[in-house]
Amino acid sequence: MNFDDTPQEAAFRSQARSWIAANAPKQYEQELRKSSLGRTQLTGASILEVAKAWQKRKADAGWACLHWPREYGGRGASPIERVIWQEEEGAFGKLSAMFIIGHGMCGPTMMAFASEEHKRRFLPPLASGEKIWCQLFSEPAGGSDVAGLRTRAEKKGSDWIVNGQKIWTSGAHYSDYGILLTRTDPTVPKHKGLTMFFLDMKSPGVEVRPIKQASGKSDFNEVYFTDVKIPDSQRLGEVNDGWNVALTTLMNERMSIGAGVATGFPELFEFCSNLMLEDGLAIDDRSVRSRLANWAVKANGLKYTYYRAVSALSRGERPGPENSIGKLVAGSMLQDIAAYAMDLEGAAGTLTGASEEIARGQFQQMLLSSPSTRIAGGTDEILRNIIAERVLGLPGDIRVDKDVPFNKIPTKGR
Ligand SMILES: Cc1cc2nc3c(=O)[nH]c(=O)nc-3n(C[C@H](O)[C@H](O)[C@H](O)COP(=O)(O)OP(=O)(O)OC[C@H]3O[C@@H](n4cnc5c(N)ncnc54)[C@H](O)[C@@H]3O)c2cc1C
Q1: What is the mean pLDDT of residues 101-118?
Q2: Which of 81, 132, 185, 309 is spaced 20 to 30 A from 159 at the CA atom?
Q3: What pTM value is reported for the model?
């Protein structure tokens, strides 16, 4: 591993740093720095508007979606330049959260499968944040096993008519477009009868119902489709080859989620450095130090695993399935750290307000949001399966319905 910039990378870093210093919305920097998982919000400003304005400013100057080709709204930069940009963007990068699905998953899928005309029309406004996209894959009957989905698309002339329901669709309530995986042939095994489309989320027959979360926020939704008409020209890939298209999306999902997983350790360290217990600062307490030391080891393990992936990128290689370990370790760590910090807060640990209590309720928000990290983009068990099968070479999961026609798989409702 070599952590030093080459002369070319150092020049790129300095150019990025100067542009960010001159253009970033600095009035929000402190708030963004302090916001942790579960609570990125700004006092007196709409985060959606601030995020869109920052994204547009970046796009106008050629700093949006750096690794995308220029004709689609990117900069044509190398993967390592993208990593350098993320390091330099720092806290302002938290403003990109609502674009992650569009930029990290929908964009690359469109780039691989949409027509040239559609790529030139839809990708630049996606890169600039003027249009937001969502990913419509999961359903009540298809999450980890997404190929078990039941939303039907039936061909009528040059259109497809879609009926069904999606769930857990992040950002659907503010999205303009979405990529949608449907079942087009139920008579073949489940992976073989799927087709992918993209659609306008304002199409007649699309109904978005926000889901209220334990944290009080509504980040994701149920989405219902009733006779929604999608032109065949908005099909991505071949009819019944949607599984292959979905693999492109999911591969990009793992890469974009794995890039920067939150652990909660920096927040806990800062908290313990300032928290006064009965007999002195928490950071000086032996039992607190012992817990911190264990988490410091894990946090550093994750940091160097991430550096290993960055080194692979700089050599022109793709990070492999071993990167699944980042989210697996960080997800449970985040949950443990939040619970521990709330214990240290004593009675105040029961309060969740942002202004008056110790640590501004950040660990309470972290605790409520952290279980979702262990589910979104692959549950802990699925990540363990990936590591077992593809890194350690252990025998594969048992998949009894793999070769059975979808409409012959026994279900409770039939
Ligand atoms: C914050 C958040 C955002 C999300 N955003 C989106 C989005 O934008 N678009 C979208 O389409 N989806 C989204 N999802 C859905 C997400 O992809 C699914 O929740 C996830 O894939 C798990 O599916 P499921 O909830 O149906 O659980 P299930 O797949 O039903 O799993 C239930 C339990 O069984 C375990 N399990 C399942 N299969 C196996 C197996 N083979 N071996 C061992 N254990 C197994 C799981 O680990 C889990 O513990 C989001 C989820 C969250 C939490």
Answers
A1: 96
A2: 132
A3: 0.92
Mean pLDDT of the chain, nearest integer: 90
Q: Is residue 375 within 6 Å of ligand 1 at its C-beta? A: yes
Pick from 414, 413, 411: nearest CA to 145: 411
- Whether 144 lines ligand 1, by a CB cut-off of 6 Å, is yes
Catalytic residue among 81, 89, 253, 267: 253
Query: In a 10 Å sphere around its CB, with 0-12 CB exposed, 13-18 middle and 19+ buried, how is residue 11 labelled?
Result: exposed
The phi, psi pair for 398, rounded to 5°, reads -80, 125
Q: CA–CA distance from 3 to each of 10, 91, 308, 401 (Å)?
A: 12, 21, 9, 46
Kindly tell me if the per-residue pLDDT of 259 is higher than 60: no
Q: Report which ligand 1 atom has the smallest distance to the Cα of 171.
A: 8
Q: Which H helix or E strand runs over 281?
A: strand 280-281
Across 144-176, b (16+ Cβ under 10 Å) vs e yields eebbbbbbbbeeeeebbbbbbbbbbbbbbbebb
- What does DSSP assign to residue 112? H
With CA atoms as reference, report the closest residue to 323 among 363, 267, 378, 272: 378
Ligand 1 test: best mutation among 139, 166, 375, most atoms within 8 Å of CB? 375
Between the CA of 135 and the centroid of ligand 1 the distance, in Å, is: 14
What is residue 256's predicted lDDT score, i.e. its pLDDT? 60
What is the enclosing helix (H) or strand (E) of 291?
A: helix 286-314
* Residue 30 pLDDT greater than 70, yes or no: yes
Active site residue 253: yes
Q: Give the distance (Å) from ligand 1 centre to CA of residue 198.
A: 22
Task: Give the whole-angstrom CA distance, residue 107 versus residue 128.
Answer: 12
pLDDT tens for each residue of 324-369: 888 899 999 999 999 999 999 888 888 776 655 566 678 888 898 8
Residue 306: count of CB within 10 angstroms of its CB: 18
CA of 144 to the centre of ligand 1 (A): 5
Give 246's contacts (C-beta < 8 A, 6+ positions apart). Answer: 137, 146, 181, 194, 196
**Buried residues in 344-360 as b, exposed as e (16+ CB within 10 A):** bbeeebeebeeeebbbb
